[in-house]
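Minutes, project check-in

Agenda point 3 was the complex the collaborators sent over. CS summarized: four entities, 1004 residues total, and the question is how they sit relative to each other. Sequences were read into the notes so everyone works from the same version.
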Amino acid sequence: MCGHCVQCRTGNGHICRNTRIIGVDRDGAFAEYIAMPATNVLPLNGIPTTVGAVMDPMGNAFHTVLTADVSGSSVFIVGCGPIGCFAVGIARAAGAAKVIASDVNPKRLELARTMGAHVIINAARDDVVRTVVEETGGEGADVVCEMSGVPSALHQAFAAVRMGGRVQLLGIPKGEVPVDFAGEIIFKGITVYGVIGRKMYDTWHQMRRYLTAGLLDPRPVITHQFPLTQVDEALAAIRSGDAGKIILEIA
Amino acid sequence: MCGHCVQCRTGNGHICRNTRIIGVDRDGAFAEYIAMPATNVLPLNGIPTTVGAVMDPMGNAFHTVLTADVSGSSVFIVGCGPIGCFAVGIARAAGAAKVIASDVNPKRLELARTMGAHVIINAARDDVVRTVVEETGGEGADVVCEMSGVPSALHQAFAAVRMGGRVQLLGIPKGEVPVDFAGEIIFKGITVYGVIGRKMYDTWHQMRRYLTAGLLDPRPVITHQFPLTQVDEALAAIRSGDAGKIILEIA
Amino acid sequence: MCGHCVQCRTGNGHICRNTRIIGVDRDGAFAEYIAMPATNVLPLNGIPTTVGAVMDPMGNAFHTVLTADVSGSSVFIVGCGPIGCFAVGIARAAGAAKVIASDVNPKRLELARTMGAHVIINAARDDVVRTVVEETGGEGADVVCEMSGVPSALHQAFAAVRMGGRVQLLGIPKGEVPVDFAGEIIFKGITVYGVIGRKMYDTWHQMRRYLTAGLLDPRPVITHQFPLTQVDEALAAIRSGDAGKIILEIA
Amino acid sequence: MCGHCVQCRTGNGHICRNTRIIGVDRDGAFAEYIAMPATNVLPLNGIPTTVGAVMDPMGNAFHTVLTADVSGSSVFIVGCGPIGCFAVGIARAAGAAKVIASDVNPKRLELARTMGAHVIINAARDDVVRTVVEETGGEGADVVCEMSGVPSALHQAFAAVRMGGRVQLLGIPKGEVPVDFAGEIIFKGITVYGVIGRKMYDTWHQMRRYLTAGLLDPRPVITHQFPLTQVDEALAAIRSGDAGKIILEIA
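CS then shared the predicted structure for the full assembly.
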């Protein structure tokens, strides 16, 4: 965020073209010292520091879910990594009538169920689209949040959304994916939204409110905690593919 | 709803000028026989008939709450009659961060608490506006739903809403109420919405979804049930002022 | 705008509670010297300085008109002072199907016509509400912008808006005005919006775009120009009640 | 439109799954006799019959343009067939600050200019994306309407829209088109909307208002008129690729 362009000055700093992402464009929190711009600092106001530590990725989930109209709706979360699992909990807290989650990893599906998914679908075994359509009275889901970036899952997202529904895209596919624009998007009259970052600062304020109000407990997604000295074990746990979020404690 | 005017044809049948309200402009359900237009009939799909019997007034509460943005917000419900108590439950189900309710009747306040109010205010005894402001970190409530129609409560609604917030007006004041437009509305930059009826048919579909999904259990608001033969006792209970909704059973 | 509160950080700096209005809470441009915060300075990018000089009040008109949905709509502007006349031009530029304007001053009504009003109503002589209803096919206006602050005009605003329409309130009535909430607001299902200041910075960017694109020529509203030395003549012209905006030239 | 499903009952009849399109699913106006459902008939109220004859495709253009926020915006129309040319005129009437249109056919580009395009781009010769970016101060267009269905044009649509902008898809590509979801949609934070049919009946009412108010004169797009007996000449003119809309007169 530069703070001076039209985007920054109209509440859209998340798509400022001058953004220098901390940890990408300049040193992040793995550096020995870090100077943080004041505008990036937010008081936790009683939110536990373990939760504070995951508010960056959880903010992506808030941005994804709360820019759709989920109250009373059926919501299909495609991909149950940490951000997908956060999204399940947020959709429940925001009054979704039915939350359906899919993944190929049974451990992640269990985590999604813990976070409140009414229906979980093992995409390695079950017919994803048929299950979503059946669970939504034959209509398809009102809102689909694609959190996996897997091309086959992307097509499932378009196939499982109802006519006139909304697909939120957060997962990043590698390379190009062939799309049947007519059948998957246009004739269905759907809206597709590309989710990038967190809204400055709408998302942050919404997230802080949900957390301080106790609408959402994201801690089940934090599956491991290590002291900073065991950073190697932490990285190994991430690589295993079964972990949710992992906290490094700075003594 | 005439079905032919611009309002009816653009999803705003609730403000069709040709509406003939059943029970007002023509015989209602207290007549010996009633012919009901097909467009007024909705299958309950498993919703209990006792709940079905209160869906008309509960629809006003859905219309009031869901035309504001309550997810993650602080919501102040002014007046805890049956519709106010429904509104408390709906606001909770839709992800309100904090629900505050006020009334002068302790029984109604208890019912509001049963329906999920975080904070209840006895308007006969406590400083309503100061309490709301304190409970919202000094800002005032994001959304205020005025369900009482009492002039003093109306002023509390305007005083308790935050800068840029939203006031939903459902309660019907008798006669004129003097308003300080500058201080109560304009300088606060608020939006005021007049709630009439239920949206055709958005409100009905939302309500049915909330109920079939179990997001809301409105039954605590139904405080009495009588067989049809005891209609006089039912009317006496209504007049007592302590009842919520009362069901007459047709054997 | 403090730049740090929730309002400022979510694009609502116009309702920041810490705002110190220049010219009200601190010295304005009539002081010998003025220090202007950088965030209050905007390059004109080719907009003439005479137009730049009226962008503050014209911003109120942009905020009023563009927070309603005027494209293809009937718009009734109540009060044809300079801000009302700007609003007429903005509504035309934004694609209003019919713009109706009322005032008691024939000179101001002529100015409204110059700015593009399709219909002008002399409120001292004609039946305002009946004319608006007739000119809108019996429905009433989709959008009403109340720019006068006169109590009788306020009631005309509510009476002339269609069922489900929108009333934008900018004019500041002195003291309290008795309102029939049931008949004027609730049963009509309308939305009322209190317009304060200009949105930071949405309004400013929209205004700059309209002006640089030539969608609107506000110069007819500038009825007088004086050198700074003739400030007394300028003030006399304002007091006459017939002037639009008056420019003081700093040599 | 079946009139009974959730979509039909909430103002979304254009995506009713039971729709039987006249001329596709049942006989259209080329049959000797046609029985037309009453809900498909609209009085013209003074709109000339030649204009009435093109309101079906023009409705697609209205749906495309008016579901984006074009007031004060830069709008890029990709493809200047009849619907694209209608869209140019509608965007102008709705207060677009700058309308840019592209096509490979110089005759169609001239028609777009006649309808009000500020900038025309010959896609066979000029660098489309660079021109749009330059004409929008380096930002890209706020709104892009893709009316061609040509895969290369689709990529230009995504490349030419600004960060956080909106792409309306009406043109139907044949088969699949490879898309870089990350670069073309997600990282840009854009919204993509699939335009199907016309909204029942929002689009029809908006269109009738624009036409009766004279905000738009679509007649330049009607390039030919033939008596019904010369239907073969009419079809030949269509096949030539240079025609706009062609009217057959029924004596």
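Noted in discussion: The interface with chain A takes residues 6, 9-11, 200-202, 205 of chain C (CB under 8 Å).
Follow-up: revisit at the next meeting once the mutant set is ready.
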